[in-house]
Amino acid sequence: MIPAMHSILFHIGPLCLRAYGLCMALGFLFGWQAAVWLCRRTGQNPDRLTALLTWLMLSAVLGARAAYVLEHWTSEFAGNPLSVIRVDQGGLMFYGGLIAAALVLLLYARVYRQHLFQITDLVLAVVPLGHAFGRVGCFMHGCCYGKLTRSCIGVAFPRESPAWWEQVSATPPLIAQTALKSLPVIPTQLFESAANLVLFAALYRLYPKRHAQRGFVTGCYLVSYATIRFAIEYLRGDPRLAVGPFSISQTISIGLLALGLACLAYSPRMRLDVRTAQNSLPHIEQ
Q1: Report field, pTM of the whole predicted structure over 0.90
Q2: pLDDT at residue 274 greater than cutoff 50
């Protein structure tokens, strides 16, 4: 059994540095840098990429927070509505952020008259890297934990953690309120982080070879991540909103899997001339 959770890294006067916020910042930084490298490897202009990625990050955080709040309003926020703004303390639903960012991309592509897949292929090639950092932040904060386990990989979260509260509040309680830590649970956060790193490595190698074929990288991401998330949901132990026999995230995964397969079927018809692809990003405004 492994002890876990270091939500607050250190204090500087009245300010504190939280692991979740730090991991989010690092995820954006490294994801942005990876996108710049991909642009340079494929002859595209990376200088005007920052503004778009900043808007995507902001919309993703807002969408992820909104989705999480809607799913957990009764259990977490109804008694303290002001806690909705405490994003630094964790509580984001990835699919909510993905949908919000997709809407921003749709608007951007329409305003600047660019093919949507020109942008999504690049962005989704690096999203798994940022997501991997985000899941490490989840682990450090203690949210998005897995089911109870007796295996050697089990993780015990300390008193006042989300897992501890869930086990204390269970009917009947699984642990006493005097317990100093939770019962061991599966570290699903680390499983998903590792899976995202593998996916990033694959897409990072794939993008330079197939970036001229619009929609191919997008389809690969959607199919791969939807499969990963659908499987990991079976290991999750935190409260999940159900849609029939599936969780809300599994239901969304099924939809994204179908969309990804459609992208892969569509992409052979959309192969760009390499010179066109190399000039696909210079119109991104500062």
Answers
A1: no
A2: no
